Amino acid sequence: MSDSLLFNKPLDSFMQEQFYYLDEDITGNKRLFFENSGGSLRLKNVVQADARIASYPDCPERLHDMALEIRKIIENGLNDVRIMLNATSGSILPIDTASRAMFEMIGSFSQATAGGNIVTTALEHPSAYDACVHYADLHKKELRVAEADPLTGTVLTKSIIELIDKDTNLLAFVATSNITGAILDIPEIVKQARAINPEMYIVIDAVQYAPHGVVDLEKWDVDGLNIAPYKMFGNRGMAFAYISERAASITHLKLAAAPADKWGLGSPAPAHYAGFSEIVNYICTLGSYVSESTDRREQYVNGMTLIEDRERALHTFLLHGDQDTPGLLQLDGLTVHFKDQPLERKDFIVGLSFDDLSWSKAVELYTKKGVLVYERLATSYYSKRILESVQLEGLIRVSPLHCHTLDDMRTFIHITQSLLRVNGR
Predict the structure, then answer these.
(1) Domain covering 49-279 in this structure, CATH number
(2) Which distant-in-sequence residues (6+ apart) come within 8 Å of 375 by Cβ?
(3) Helix (H) or strand (E) run with residue 394 in it
């Protein structure tokens, strides 16, 4: 996509108007929020829709006008989940967190098969990895773990495939690591895995991937996938999972009288569905900047493609700079981790280490200069296994968003230079 489409004043202005606290915190202090992998900036329309619909006391399972309106909001929200995922079949599980969704899916898929083995990777979020460990032990299955490549921060396709055999009945892997930023090759991994055992269940953790790339379940032959709206410009308190048509009716937690393929339990929260529709609305509006299509899925894909291309351009600038500003890769005393991973296979996450500053001290100094980033340390149970798999004790995770600008990248580079000068660099 051309720079004229990726970066122009009308587009920048539109994006910047859509988010709360983009360049200052709630007290009015100026800052750069480069911590979007921990929970992204919030769309104003999402927060407002959530608050408005949450005030309705009406139950959607009634017949009066407000109940019918709420039911329509829920239907629209579920339809937008399907549009985002390109899921024309299968079931949707609304649930409180993406982590719980992962345990639900892996647990149900694991108990549906006897013996055999489960394959996963060292890069997994604890919700996926620990679910595999738990259910492998509970259901007497062998657990096989594909190791990560320390240079690229990814798991090579061959490292996963060499662990799969005809007795593999569950494969679970992350689409994008929220620590290294590596994007795994989903279509190729699935294709090769199915060639060995077409009956295995395949589960994808798409929480980090979904805000930055196009999900396409019509092309990805998987049985389960989770997303978390709070990672993609929405609020906390709600997540969604997809379960394929062939897997939807296996034994799982449900009310006895409910349809065999229903995975949701309890009353839905209409406000969350209204908020999710606003996420899709925003991305579709971005799509209108590059295409006049009126098809909602096409609009969504065009919008996500713009996001993906814009973030890659920002990422490139951050690493390489221009004639006026050196990139992070040119700064002495600073290590950029996983620089061997091609940017087309990498999320907008940069891992940094200072030669003369601890990760925690660097984060403290960034914060004092108005930049929010986060240290991922091997002392954290969320990070320990993943960091050790890439032979690191820690790193500073820098995770901007598509709504940031080239000037924001330049500011971050200049602040990083100032931190290096603290130690005489």
Answers:
(1) 3.40.640.10
(2) 359, 360, 362, 363, 394, 395, 396, 397
(3) strand 394-398
Contact 383, 179 (CB under 8 A): yes
- What's the fold here for domain 3-42+297-422? Aspartate Aminotransferase, domain 1 (3.90.1150)
Residue 142 zone, left/alpha/beta (φ > 0; ψ -120 to 50; rest): beta
Alpha-carbon distance of 40 to 12, in angstroms, equals 18
What is residue 422's predicted lDDT score, i.e. its pLDDT?
Answer: 64
Name the E strands within 70-112: 91-95
Give the N- to C-terminal CA distance of the chain in Å, as an integer.
Answer: 38
DSSP code per residue over 329-341: GG-TTEEEETTTS
Confidence of residue 410 (pLDDT cuts 50, 70, 90): very high
What b/e sequence results for 318-341 when a residue is b if at least 16 CB atoms lie within 10 Å of its CB, and e otherwise? bbebeeebbbbeebebbbbbbbeb
Contact criterion met (CB below 8 Å) for 327 and 406 = no
Q: Are 226 and 243 in contact (CB under 8 A)?
A: no
What six digits make up the tokens of 35?
């911590």
Place of tokens 């296979």: 345
DSSP 39: S
Angle at 142 between CA 136 and CA 145, to 5 degrees: 90
Positive/negative CA dihedral, 231, 50, 274, 15: negative
Cα–Cα distance measured from residue 95 to residue 398, given in angstroms and rounded to the nearest whole number: 29
pLDDT in tens, 62-100: 888 888 999 999 999 999 999 999 999 999 999 999 999
Q: d(Cα 224, Cα 172) in Å, to the nearest integer?
A: 9
Domain ranges of the chain: 3-42+297-422, 49-279
Alpha-carbon distance values, 317 to 33, 43, 148 (Å): 18, 25, 27
Instruction: Look at the block and give the residue holding tokens 């279509």.
Output: 187
DSSP for residue 38? G
